[in-house]
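== Sequence, structure tokens ==
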Amino acid sequence: MSSGGVTDPFHHVRDAAGFDIPRGMADAHGHGVLDILLPNILGFQVSKFMLLQVVAAVIVFLIFRGLAARISGGSPVRGRFWNFWEAIALFLRDEVVRPTIGDHHHDQHSDGAHAHGHADHGQDAHGHVAHNHSAAAHPADQYLPFIWSCFFYILICNLLGAIPWLGSATGSINVTGALALCAFGATVLYGFRAMGPAGFFRNMMPDTGVPGAFGIVLTMGIFLIEVFGFFIKHSVLAVRLYANIMGGHTVLAVILGFIAQAAHGGLGLWAVVTFGSIVGQVFIGCLELFVAFLQAYVFAFLATIFIAGAVHEH
């Protein structure tokens, strides 16, 4: 946002009270952007990232409501758009959630259950994914709604940042912190449900095999380290996602800033720097698209590992 004629070059990677849309030419006050402010409702300021998070949630809802309607009859999903989202969902189910969490009731059969999970779908003659909806659900599937929600919500938030003049809500530590808090709550909830509160905390107290008072002290020390590490691991979820998204957009802003700086050095220098900056933007933009998928996957994968650790006895 601009204030007093000074424009923050990193406004697009930070939250704000509105959106800045380039005018194409400066107005009478020397401002080259149009400030579109969001409303203040009863003293509560709606911010850019708040609106983008709602947009991301609506997009996810519309995509998977449509996908659910298309598979509800048991027929294969048709169309590249729908196959794309279904393929990602099946990958997370068959390659992340089921093999990582397994069957916490019958751990020794987890490999067989994983193999069974891969047999639940195939392809017809047209390459469309077909399902065997009569197959028994895998025990780990109860955790799928949360993992799917994390992945696709984060993915859409990341991808919105690739659209000019919008932004990535996941570039805010407040947003990623809230997501990490949700993962923390889900891990505790699922752990309590699988093992009970006492069993959940007892799982953090390994049998050291050391007798006497020293063994008790050692066990309690390990317990405190486990509890501390439990908080740290979920905090890392927030910091990792925030740092990667914020860092990528900051690099894009810096490269674009080279063009404005070179404008004071003559036409030849400006032309060379502009060409190099645009080429750099294209390549880094492609990398950012990859990072958008990668960071959503990393968050979902780590959340799955944390849930697996909470529902299994160590």
